[in-house]
């Protein structure tokens, strides 16, 4: 097995970056729209209305989240197992794999957690960790390439 087998094929590159970009930007735009709406909660300004964009952004985000799980499943044999067998695993690998798992678990929590207090914590974690995901991904890719 050659080292280049760890690289993504052309179609996988398109699907991976396409789906993860929609996932990331729908989450970040939701954060901006949601928080812009809550500025001025005390007193004038906020009228308790939710922007009509919010449900659409979450629908897009939820669909991209499901797509991202399919892509991560494709990566298990085509990328993760191969890189592991070639002993090309490195610390940022633990970070990217762990972060993807935590995003999926906290995403599940956002759907099904009944308690408002817990949901607020999960939402905060999911949002901060999600914003950090591209940075961890770039770290993973660069350190993986250095170890050829
Ligand atoms: C056991 C887990 C993993 C291992 C051992 C691993 C290892 C590696 C290595 C060695 C590279 C450098 C390849 C090269 O350019 O020569 C790499 C690149 C990359 N990894 Fe991973 N990885 C793992 C999991 C993941 C996960 C979960 C993701 C997605 C969230 C991911 C996304 C990427 C991407 C996008 C690249 C760049 C690929 C390219 O440009 O062709 N990896 N990985
Ligand atoms: C790429 C970075 C990501 C960012 C920036 C992000 C951001 C967000 C934000 C801001 C929310 C709304 C939080 C709330 O309702 O309080 C959300 C909801 C959600 N996210 Fe993410 N997320 C990301 C990745 C993921 C991933 C990888 C998954 C699962 C595989 C996921 C699954 C979900 C789910 C299921 C919801 C709930 C949707 C709903 O309530 O309709 N997210 N995300």
Instruction: Measure the end-to-end span.
Output: 14 Å
Helical/strand content category = mainly alpha
Beta strands, count: 0
String of helices and strands: HHHH
What helical percentage do the residues reach?
A: over 70%
Q: Are there runs of 5+ residues with pLDDT below 50, and where?
A: none
Rg measurement, Å: 18 Å
The molecules bound to the chains, other than polymers, are: protoporphyrin IX containing FE
Shape descriptor reads: elongated
**Multimerization status:** single chain
Mean pLDDT: 90
Beta-strand residue fraction: under 5%
Biggest sheet features: none
What would you note in describing this structure?
This protein is mostly helical and 148 residues long. It has two domains: 7-63, no CATH class; 88-148. It is 77% helix and 0% strand. The chain has helices at residues 10-37, 53-85, 91-112, 116-146. Helix 1 packs antiparallel against helix 4 (116-146). The longest helix has 33 residues, at 53-85. The structure holds protoporphyrin IX containing FE (2 copies).
């Amino acid at each position: 097995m050659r080292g280049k087998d760890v690289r993504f094929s052309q179609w996988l590159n398109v699907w991976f970056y396409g789906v993860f970009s929609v996932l990331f930007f729908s989450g970040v735009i939701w954060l901006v729209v949601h928080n812009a709406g809550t500025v001025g909660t005390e007193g004038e300004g906020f009228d308790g209305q939710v922007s009509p964009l919010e449900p659409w952004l979450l629908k897009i985000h939820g669909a991209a989240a499901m797509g991202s799980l399919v892509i991560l499943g494709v990566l298990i044999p085509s990328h993760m197992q191969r890189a592991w067998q070639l002993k090309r695993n490195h610390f940022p690998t633990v970070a990217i794999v762990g972060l993807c798992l935590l995003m999926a678990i906290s995403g599940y929590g956002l759907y099904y957690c009944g308690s408002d207090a817990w949901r607020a914590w999960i939402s905060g974690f999911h949002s901060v960790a999600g914003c950090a995901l591209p940075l961890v991904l770039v770290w993973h890719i660069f350190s993986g390439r250095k170890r050829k």
